[in-house]
Every structure is written in structure tokens, then in C-alpha cells.
Protein 1
Amino acid sequence: MIPLTNILDVQQPVLMVEIRGNENNPLLHGTAIFSPTPMGGVLIQVEVFYLPDQDLPNHSGFFGMHLHQNGDCQIPFDQTGDHFNPKALPHPEHAGDFPPLLSGHGYAWMAFYDTRLSIEDIMGRSIVIHGHKDDFSSQPSGMSGEKIGCGVIIKI
Ligand SMILES: [Cu+2]
Ligand SMILES: [Zn+2]
């Protein structure tokens, strides 16, 4: 059994991403940072501004978010490839399947611990935010809609 460690004693982040919006969401922007931990895996902290949920009827406030295979965020974010999935599993068991963002007033902040990934796995790949919630069942990618934000993961 791996000894558990106080995750708030986490090491400094070693990777980061700057997320920007697509043409329909020019104000959307955000950052994420990625830290190794003594227990393995990655601690991921995400902050995003100007998500487009305000005033949209029937919007849950959840936004699907994934690690996509390719580190290419050319507008309209159609070069990002599939969810990172080195073990060829179904959605939402892809290593690149993240918890969804929850927006309040268009702002989202989240931290989570992910042992599906390593720092080496994620370097150079892309984080994509989608316009709707991920249903965590539809194949191949959870029906979360338009890619509204994207960023490529780089070393700090
Ligand atoms: Cu995605
Ligand atoms: Zn997936």
C-alpha cells in the first residue's frame, strides 16, 4: 500500500497551460498548473474566466473538460485529436477524461488528483473545454459539444 501524504504539501508545479477561447468566446481564458506528488499521479489546478453559461437557458453550468491527444490549438480547435487514451478504453475511462468544470458567474476553479496520468504523459498535449456537460456515457467523447477553449501544456 502506498503511504498517503498530505496533498497540500505538494511539490511546486512543473507544467502549465494557458487556455484561450474560440471565435465565439473571445473573452474566455484560463490557466492550469500540474504538480507531481509523493504518491505518484498529478495534482491539477484549473482556473477559467468568462465561461459562456450566463443567460443561457437550460445550461447546467457544467463544462466538459479533457486532455486531448495533440498539442495543437489552432482555431477552431479541430486539430486536437481524440481524448488521450493510451490503454484503448471506452469513454469516460480514457486517461484524458477529467472532471467537468462548474461555472459560477462564468468563473470556474477546481483542483483534483489524477493517478491515470503522469507528468510525462501530459507534456505537450492539449486541454480542451467544451460548451456543454460531458454525459460520461456517449462514445467516443461524451457529447459535450463545441470546443470553446483550448491550450497546449508546456514546461514552467
Ligand atoms: Cu474534449
Ligand atoms: Zn473520453
Protein 2
Amino acid sequence: MKISLLVISSIVSLCLVQCGRVRDEAAASTAGTTPRAKPVILVANYPLKYFAQQIGGELIDVRFPAPANEDPAFWQPDDNAISQFQKADLILMNGASYSKWTDKVTLPASKIVDTSSSFQSTFIEEKGAITHSHGPGGEHSHNGIAFTTWIDFYQAIAQAKAVRAGISRVRPDDARTIDANTERLAAELGRLDNRMLAVGKRMNGQPVVASHPVFQYWARRYGINLKSVLWEPDEAPTDKQMEELKALLATHKAKWMVWEGVPAKEGAEKIKRVGLQGVVFDPCANNPEKGDFLSIMKANVEGIENAFP
Ligand SMILES: [Zn+2]
């Protein structure tokens, strides 16, 4: 009895699915329409690309044209990339002084979502950071508003919700899918946030050094007593940089340096000689070579948990 009911209900639901499909196809063919093109969404960095893909999935076409070897915060897009942004159905910006190029380029204001605007009153302003260069973009400065907003995972959730609002605008009929996807992503970010809050507590204010001034929001959210130098993971520190580090360590007695990428061997050995161990926390602003945003953030958090058990 039970089995036959199950069979009947399967047949009924199959029919509902099939009949629905036939009806949709019939409607489409009588209206003479072809399947609607996916809205094109341009993004300012890889975290927003990941958020959009997680939230919009197959409903959207996400594009992030920055080259792999550039820091998207300082990247200067060429004419082709700028025209892609100008023609997009939706533009997801990081805000917080990210994408310096937008100061000089006009983008359609109605298409832009500034994903950090909900917490702009608590932006951190960096003063006295020295101009330096890394990557092919030439010199840059970290003076002004700190922009690595998403490694405060609580802020990342706010950015994900802004992405949801943007995608809902270009896919107004898919609210249920979009909301469910957003909830799933927000839950993952929430788990990372809780783990970092716990390890931040265990660190209990002990001094830590960062290789580059990109960890401001992370340090604030998780109560980390952090001071930065201006190093690049792939460049060996110079004698001058080592002297500056030693001077910093005299008053800020750190045992760990947080690197934004895996350090070159020479850098890793040099910090060992001044009593520092290294741990990597990759902000993942650009497309990762391996894994994705979530797997990299999980590895980052695990590294900090192992350093401060
Ligand atoms: Zn820099």
C-alpha cells in the first residue's frame, strides 16, 4: 500500500514538473522569446566575485577583469575593462577607498552597489603610512581609509548582504534562491567570525607584527594587538627593513609575524633570527591560484588557531 502510494505520488509530481515545463516552453514559443540573457555583473575584487557567484549562481554572469598579478585596490583598468564596467547590468564595488581608478572614471551611478556603505561610519583611517611600491602598479600609499574590509568577517556578511540586494535588483523573480544562497554564505562567514573571535580572545593582547598594512579591520574586530611593517612576502627584507623591524620589536615584543602571502625562504629565515615565527593570512583580494575564498579563509583561520592554541 505504502509503495503504490509512493509510486502514484512520484508519477503525479513527475507530471507536474513535466507539464509545467511544457507549458513554459509553449509560452516561450508563442511569445517568440529566447531564454533571457544573464545579467552581467562586474566586480571590484575577488571576494565580491566569490560572494556574487555564491549568491547568484547560474542566474548571473560575473566578471572580474583585473589581471592576476595586480592588487585590485590599486589596479588601473585599461579602456576595454573600463568599458566592460560601464556596460554592466550591475557593478559591485568594495568601497572604503578601494578601486582608486573610479576617482577618474564615470560609471553609471544607478548600476553601482557600494558593498561597504552600511558600515562606512566605522571605517579606519590610516595615517603616516609610507608610500612604497609592489607589483606592476608602481608606487602606492596606504594613507587614507583602510580598504581590506572583508577579513573582518562580520563586515564581510554586511558586504554579502549588499551583494544580495544588488543581485535581487537584476533578478527580481528569483528572491527565494538568492535569499537561501545568501543565508548559506552568511552562515559560513559567521562560523569564520566566531572562530576568529575565539582565537582573538586567546591571543589576549599579545603583540603581533604584520608584513603589510592591510589587517586593520581584522585586528580591530578580533582584538589583535597588531603593528605593521611594509614588506612584501616575495621580496627578501633589506638590511634597513630588518633594522626597522628590530626597533619595532624593542617596544612591541611580538613572537609572530602575519604574512599576507607565503614568504620567500630568505624572508622567513631572517625573521627567525630575530625571534619571530611566521603565519600566513591571505586576504585573497585577487583570484587564488588554488582553492576559493572560503577554503583560503578557513586555512587562514586554522593557521592563526595553530599559532595561538
Ligand atoms: Zn602596499
Protein 3
Amino acid sequence: MLSDELLKILACPKCKGHLDYIKDKEKLVCNGCRETYRIENDIPIMLIDEAEKF
Ligand SMILES: [Zn+2]
């Protein structure tokens, strides 16, 4: 699980916007870009190339 401090500083690498943390899916979601970023071993993969559209 990600800490609140980490969540506060995380931003979408594409638009620098707010990310929503989907705890049960271990994903970060940018509603602006409609991209999801996965989290592996508590490390968010903040790479545009690794993002998935939804
Ligand atoms: Zn974005």
C-alpha cells in the first residue's frame, strides 16, 4: 500500500495532474488523460510508455 505522503507528491507524468489511487486494484488513475499506472511491490510505475488507457 502506498503512503499518504507518497500519494501527495505523485502526479501524472503526462499532464502533471492529480492521480486517484485504486487500492483494490493497486493502480493509479489519471482521469484527465484516462490512463492507469500500475503499482509493483509498492512502487508506482510512473512511465507514459507503461501506462494503460481505460
Ligand atoms: Zn494525466
Protein 4
Amino acid sequence: MTIKENQSLRPFNTFGLDASCLGLIRIYSVEDLLDVIQNNIHPLRILGGGSNILLSGDIPAYILKNEIKGLTIIEEDENQVLVEVGAGEPWHQFVMWSIAHGFAGIENLALIPGTVGAAPMQNIGAYGVEQEMAFDKLRATHLTTGTESVFTKTDCAFGYRESVFKNELKDQYFITHVSYRLLKKDYTLHLQYGDIQKTLTNMSVANPGLEDVAAAVIEIRRSKLPDPKKIGNAGSFFKNPVVDATKYDELKLLYPEIPGYPTTENNVKLPAGWLIEKAGYKGYRSGNIGVHQLQALVLVNYGGGHGKDIQNLAYEIQEKVWEIFGVRISPEVNFW
Ligand SMILES: Cc1cc2nc3c(=O)[nH]c(=O)nc-3n(C[C@H](O)[C@H](O)[C@H](O)COP(=O)(O)OP(=O)(O)OC[C@H]3O[C@@H](n4cnc5c(N)ncnc54)[C@H](O)[C@@H]3O)c2cc1C
């Protein structure tokens, strides 16, 4: 085991924020992880691609950088395939691998940054699909006992950008392998969400295949979301809040143009980006940090910004949205 001391975390988070840690340890296998646990190294933090964290200051912990790789087909028949993926594999690469093999289920999740191991953590989702729709199970190692457990879909308690690992079991398990069940035939493409159908039409694709759907998603994402290589960000900073129908009706009277998407008979999801924009924060800038000019849901570091300032801006936005609309928005990003 090698501990790299005095390692800045700046290259390891998409906000591009500078912060120190006690040391960085690269984990290539479950054995590497057990080595850390047996040597009683703590406190520990798990890092994937750093695309969903906000470093609000120096981190008084050892960082376990997930490098567990590998893709293994566990089961296969004429209809489907069960594939186990090392949690340190880049998510987008896994999506492209599945498409290249003609395996369906995660094509709408192309270009989401980060690792496979972090995908169940917040049940990543985009364009009408969440990873839980293809998820089968995962293996995780307990960070103090070193015991390995298998978590089924039910155990993971997936919700909208939620799982048991973000709640009751927060920072307790290192997810080492995730299995997905992908379809070889008789699958339905999800084209109705966002601009997918429109983009396919613009691309002159009449009968789309998996590659076409992923290409459309990639094109839409590139046109809408800032590239973290150019402007530091962690994608959507807040989750879209869900309110009951009565609250939605009240808001609709005050703001007839407010968008809303029913999730159940009595609940409506509101776009957090719309609320933030209406609160006047779209394009807001304070020194080196701010809110993206085109995407009110994306907080940004223009370079040299501090995590603490982004955190304070996030709190300010939350308060303002509450004051104006009486709606609580909560962060999707993990504060470290
Ligand atoms: C430009 C951009 C666009 C994005 N678009 C989307 C989107 O469309 N949909 C979406 O859902 N998300 C999106 N995200 C957020 C992010 O990409 C996902 O949440 C991704 O799954 C994070 O992966 P990561 O490896 O970078 O996790 P990290 O940021 O490294 O970690 C996130 C959290 O998970 C924990 N964690 C990481 N790996 C493990 C593990 N192996 N075991 C246990 N805990 C672990 C960490 O401790 C941390 O608390 C976007 C981010 C960016 C920057």
C-alpha cells in the first residue's frame, strides 16, 4: 500500500477546488482495501471521479481513490446479459461498451461523469432513465470490519438521487463491484424525454438504435451543460423538489408559467433550475464563483474559487427560494 502524502485534491474534483488531505491511497482491488482496514488507517473517505463532491475545506482524512477495474459477463442467454463491473471503471466508458455490444438499458445515461461505483450511490439518472432500471446487485466492503456484503435492489433503497449509501449507510461501505442486467432484444428505447426525439429528427435518424440514442443524448448534454474541463462544476447542484398538489396549485396561481411534472397522483416535481432562475440567480457571479449563465441549476468555479464560498452561495440560494416560493430545495452534491 502506498500513501501519497501532501496530495492536493484539486486534480480529483470537477469543481477544480484546491484542498489538502492526510494522504491519498489508490485502491486497485478488494485486497488493497482490506490492507488499509487491517492497518487501522482512518478516518477514510471514498473518492471516485470527484464529479459529485464539494470540497468546502481541507479534508482531515485519508482518501481512497477507487481504481478497481474490470468487466465480466456473469450470465448470458439469447435475451439478456448480466455484467459485473469494477466500481472504478468510468461510467461513460461502461455505457459505450454496452452499446458497442448491443446491450440495452443504460444508453440514455451516456456522458454522465464519474465511476460505476458512485452510480448506485445517488441512483444516477438522466433523460427518463435511472441506473436502478438496469441494476441487479452490488458488492461492498465495510470500512471498519472489512466484511463483504451483497446488496440487492431492495437493500439499496433507491429513490430520486438517493440510496441507502447516501443515508443510513453513509460513508460506511466501499462499493467495489456493481452488476447490471442489460437486454439483447425486446427492449424499449426511451425517446420521449427532453429533446431526444427532436435531436434524432435533426440527425435524420428515423429508426434509432442504441448508438443513435446515446449520440443524441451526448449532443444534447454537450449543448446544455458546461464542460468541467473548461468551467469547474458538479452538474446539477440541487435536486428538483417535490411538492404536494395543493402547494403546486397555490404556486400556479401566483406564477401561471411554473412548470410541474406529476410524480404521483398527489405529488408534483418542480424544476429547481426554474425556481433559482426566478429568484434571480441565473448568471450571478461573486468573485470567482457563481451560477452558470445558461443553467441556473449549476454552480460554478471560474477558477481559484473556494469551496466554502460555493457552499455559502448554495445556502443563500436555498434560503431565497424558500423565502419566495415556500419550497425547500436540497443539494444533490455531497458536501465534504
Ligand atoms: C457535468 C456533470 C454532469 C452531470 N450529470 C449528471 C446526470 O445527468 N445525472 C446524475 O445523476 N448525475 C450527474 N452528475 C453527477 C455525477 O456525475 C454523478 O453523481 C456520478 O455518479 C458521481 O461519480 P463520481 O465517481 O465522480 O463520484 P464522487 O464525486 O467521487 O463521489 C460522490 C459520492 O459518492 C461516494 N462514493 C464514490 N464512490 C464510491 C464507492 N465506490 N463506494 C461508496 N461510496 C462512493 C463518495 O464518497 C462521495 O460522497 C453530473 C456531474 C457533472 C460534473
